[in-house]
Amino acid sequence: MTDAQPVTRPPAGRTEARNRAASRSWIVIAEQELRDLWLSGRGLALMVAYTAVLSGSTYLVAINQDLNFVEQREAVGLTLKVAVVVGGLLVVLAAADSISGERERGTLESLLLTPTPRRAFVVGKGLSALSLWVAAYALGLPYVWWLGRDVDTFGVASASGLVVGTMLALLLIGIGLLVSMFSNSNLLSLSISFFVLLALVAPHQLPTDAVRGWAGELLLRLDPFTGGLTYLDKVIINERGYTADLDLLLVPLLVALAVCALGVLLAGRLTLLPRGRS
Which of 42, 162, 236, 278 could form a disulfide with 184 if both were Cys (CB 3.0 to 4.6 A apart)? Predict the structure, then answer.
């Protein structure tokens, strides 16, 4: 009868160091993704296109020389909403490309073989996409200030725009990542994410008569983009204060947190999809 072989365990210090490295791996991934996005010029090109759109919308608003105070507030609100929606478009397209793009380029397999946790990989990709919203918000501030310089709306508009835009950006990042995880085709991932954004924005564009009654009110309350953009109207145009309509932000906040949490949760199952599956 032979003696049992002793179980060899790694030193406690080595295990702790390995755990610390794993817990910080999302920072490494985020730094790498940020370098790839901005140093490659892709981020700059997207910001140039964003600035062109924002400049065009601001010019169309500003050519009316007969604006009174209320109309100026409406101009600020419109410009800020354009910044939020177009910034969201950049964010969701970047998130939608993050995984399906790697899969289509044949680089996802090598990334999955590294010791980096897959959740850290997805979180790093998401933070890189979020940087586009941060840049878009910063570029939009001069336009908001210029349009509202005579009605003292800059502080209110900049603060509310940051809160609403960040929540909606996180929501779109979660959507883009989820779609990208399960899309074998990058074109399919981008297309689905784009149409989801259109579907979320569309209810806010409906005429007032089309959303009257309990059904219309329910639709406006349940749609995250409608809630967020309506909150901006209430705060900037109607001057109702930050806290008067906070209930409008409840759905955007809860949905954004739920979608992002689901994306991180499912990231642990991230795999290479079989060929031909989308």
Answer: 278
